[in-house]
Records
---
Amino acid sequence: MLLEGKTVLVTGASAGIGRAAAIGAARHGANVAINYHSDDAGAAACVAEIEALGRTGVAIKGDVADPATAQDFIARSVEALGRVDVFVNNAGICPFHAFLDMPAETVDRTFRVNLHGAYYMVQAAANQMVKQGDGGAIVAVSSISALVGGEYQTHYTPTKAGVHSLMQSAAIALGKHGIRCNSVLPGTILTDINKDDLADLDKRERMAARVPLGRLGKPDDLAGPIIFLASDLARYVTGAALLVDGGAFVNLQ
Ligand SMILES: NC(=O)C1=CN([C@@H]2O[C@H](COP(=O)(O)OP(=O)(O)OC[C@H]3O[C@@H](n4cnc5c(N)ncnc54)[C@H](O)[C@@H]3O)[C@@H](O)[C@H]2O)C=CC1
Ligand SMILES: C[C@H](O)[C@@H]1OC(=O)[C@H](O)[C@@H]1O
């Protein structure tokens, strides 16, 4: 049990990586509050799994693109669970589209959800941790895409580089408060975010062929690395970025 008695908050946890992180935290002894955007059934199912593990779970609806959601999520989580020990910034979108005719509203929405949302959520969680006075851990779900490009992801990859950079600067700003800030950089993980893109079986095979470990990732592959960074096992780790990509990034030839 790496998070026994801790309170963990996860954004975008009605599905995918966020959901796996939330349930993984509960499996490690944490009570968990999740933020979600619109999938009431997915959020309820996640809370039900947390509670089946004997922990308290709470789901709070809100669009992370709205700065007010961050204040609301932290305040209502504290109301329900008492405090915030760990904050996992996960919510994100990636509407694949070509560069030359990328609609301005797609760029704007992607920036607001992935980067502005991360900024205000991390800031609100950090303020709560500072108020509590005994440190904490923040883990952001960035991406291998913080380091490499994507033809149909010109609006998305800068947000993931931004989240990675946010963790580095926040690590400096919050170290004096005992708050650690790290990111995980997933490779290609099979979730709803890329279901349509990977319906192209040629592309899916190409992506899998790049992975030395021989397969694309599953949401649960991220739970362990996120829980590790959130836990006291990583007590001297801050400002770090952990690739969780089956080796895809280093596989040049
Ligand atoms: N699947 C992949 O290959 C990779 C995913 N990531 C990142 O992982 C994170 C999670 O994505 P996945 O689990 O893959 O996809 P997903 O589509 O299964 O999950 C995304 C989650 O974010 C939530 N969300 C979306 N917009 C939101 C909003 N405005 N407010 C609140 N919640 C919102 C969704 O409801 C959902 O729970 C994202 O930040 C994504 O960029 C990073 C690298 C690779
Ligand atoms: C959504 C993509 O399949 C996924 O998102 C990322 O951040 C990875 O780099 C993959 O491209």
---
Amino acid sequence: MTIRVHELAKELKISTMALKKHLTDLGVNVKSHMSLVEDEVADKIRLKYKEQIDAEKRAERDRKRLIEMRQAAKAQKSAQEAETIKAEEPVPPVAEPVKEVPKKEEPKPVKEPEKKTPIPVKEKPAEGKPKEKPHKPVPEKPKAVPKPKPEVIPPKTAAPAKPEPRKKQEPSAPSIKPIPTPPSVEIKKEEKKFGKAKISHEELGEKSKHKKAIISSTKKAKQKLIETIEIDEAEISRNIKKTLQKSSKRKKYHREAQYVEDRSNEIVIREFTSVSELAKIMNVSPSDIISKFFMMGQLVTMNQRLDRDSLEMICDEFKVDYRFEDEYGMDIIDKEREQYNNVKEEPRPPVVTIMGHVDHGKTSILDYIRNTNVVAGESGNITQHIGAYQIEINKHKITFLDTPGHEAFTAMRARGANVTDIAVIVISATEGVKAQTREAIDHAKAAGVSIILAINKVDLPEANVDKVIAQLMEIGVYPEQYGGDIPWCRTSVVTGEGILNLIELILLTAEILELKAKRDVPASAVVIEAGMDARMGPFATILMQEGTLHKGDIVVCGAVHGRIRKMENERGAELKVLYPSDVARVYGLSDTPKAGDILNQVDSEKTARNISTERQQIRLEREKYQNKSSLQNIFARIKEEQINTLNIILKTDTDGSAEALADSFQKLSNEEVSVNIIHKSVGGISEADVSLAAASDAIIIGFHVRPSHQARKLAEEEGVQIKLYQVIYDAIDDLQNALEGMLKPEYEEQVIGSAIVKQVFKIKKVGTIAGCQVDKGVIQANCKVRLYRNDVLVTEDTISSLKHYADDVKEVRAGSECGLTLANFSDIKENDVLEAYIVNEVNKKL
Ligand SMILES: Nc1nc2c(ncn2[C@@H]2O[C@H](COP(=O)(O)OP(=O)(O)OP(=O)(O)O)[C@@H](O)[C@H]2O)c(=O)[nH]1
């Protein structure tokens, strides 16, 4: 048995070039993607890839585990810090702690004098948080000993059963973990107006200062402890790095069929490099390259730009190690930046995305935060809706990406721009965990961002926080105090409850993440959205990633460039300078960039123009090539395929539904039409899915998921069909219908009438005319007929002309006479019987 190169490549999800390289390594030379590979060789390659993929998976698992360990270490650190604080608080004279009171006694003295303020920490628990739950065991003892986190862990099942948390409790529930539970302020309830409960600056200020104090003081106080932990962390970090290095190497190898161990002789090329440019890079003459192509049956010219496959092929031919450059001009930009290598990184604000199921309150929470006067000294109306905004609380800034939830988040990731630090997952306390909650959590986890859970709408009578927590635990998401370390809070935009907690949790998480970026370097930013302003021309909403951007700076932004003419925030206020994590709408670009493009500040207008012009050219070439290649694919398929295959990419909300649907779909296959699930996974439909579908002529079926905005756009551009379902049976029915459309149609004959030949006329130049009497049904012009003589079939033919008297007619009904000729048969005799029939196409059923 054999398999074609392209088939095996498709099976392994690698390019044919990559496969060819592996085959060459095994000593097997293949000429083209249509060449046949022996099964034995194919198996060797399969095995090799399986091992490789397994190794990648293992590496990924290790990485996740290490991250978890790291988080656990941090959480533990926080818990211990919290203990110290408690221990240091002057309050508990009566407290008669319980047993293991390690530091309890000593701390009182002097150690952390700044600690005075913190009492609010204590109150916090009483506020919204349901922390009271786990503390059942510590009955009426107030001021109980702070329990280290693990002790709080309630049995998975038991937890949800418990408390009715909303009740504010007196100071009796003290054992709550204080640190991750930032002090919450009693929000005044008078202002019940939706979205209007205001948070006063003073309160926030107190809080933030307070937290700062806690963090910095605990740092000192727990010096020793931290040292030990840091040793572990250092070790963990090293492991993470090692693992990441390993896996990224493998991926590279996987994608580009390239051995990465030795990079000393590696050349860097970009897609659509011209033959002459490539010759220069490879240090060979252009005619060498042209003749190599010629030998492979391809004619190229000096200035012809080469697509990725051709470049890979030619580098392989010349036995050159190569690597693809991501975007044209990055080497120039990087070079300009080299001089800033020693610039120190400085803390930067966190970038937060709010995600969750439809209607659970994402927008409301964002608006609440935005509209309460939290914004630094600014108030007033939002003059324009921009894709991101920043708030400031006592000098602590937070940038919110105001995106339609995880769609944009996923789209950004698909473009390789992982811009979010923290994902706030909003879950309605009345509806609980839903498909998109899970999806959002999966996306956040996949992106490796910190998660904060906001259980919203707690003001409603049917709110059931415990149920939500139980549901979360069921899907493996363990909130703090419930066996996990994911910070959470209860929120309501009606009463304002918990919003402050949420902000505090964000700040605290950011603090722990120690987010940093260089400030005194040329700016780089990512485009969140872009468009055209009627008055000001093209604009881009950018999120700063590094450096400082001023009005007047020259930038290149994806395939456009310009000089920053104006920068403004969402309130239309002009900004003079942007730092890392800042967001602004910028004007002055030559054209509209694309969301996900990177904006880089460069030294000169000339550099900016050169880079953007070249990038435009490359993008154009790429588009041209993509169109061409899809046509080529079609031709290749027409030649090769005897059977009809429906390729499917299946995206679902859970693994379970993916399996169930895949199974049902596969069962619809038969010997004529086969269902080929080329990719199935959990999560929203991303651009990557659409690209894969376009490349493999697949349709995308989404179950309980939806496409990102960009994916939808791309699908329109590429003509990829996306079908979304909420009910499994609808999906199966539709697919069945689609498959039936692909079955070769069956034909069904329908006899429509008959006529007896009464007389035959032979006319020169016209031929034989049969004068007939229609005795049954109808005879139609152009219908098919069978001619019987004495009940024996003489011929099958088509009526070529039908007349009633001298007139051409479309049909003649029973009882009438007609004259007709047949297309190919003239030996008609009297008394012959003509049976007229038509052929109907019938769709086959599976
Ligand atoms: N009672 C109550 N209603 C809320 C709360 N938060 C949001 N809502 C209401 O819930 C509905 C949905 O809120 P949105 O903020 O639009 O929800 P969303 O998650 O942004 O929805 P999409 O943008 O459609 O995904 C609105 O009618 C809000 O008024 C809350 O805390 N309490």
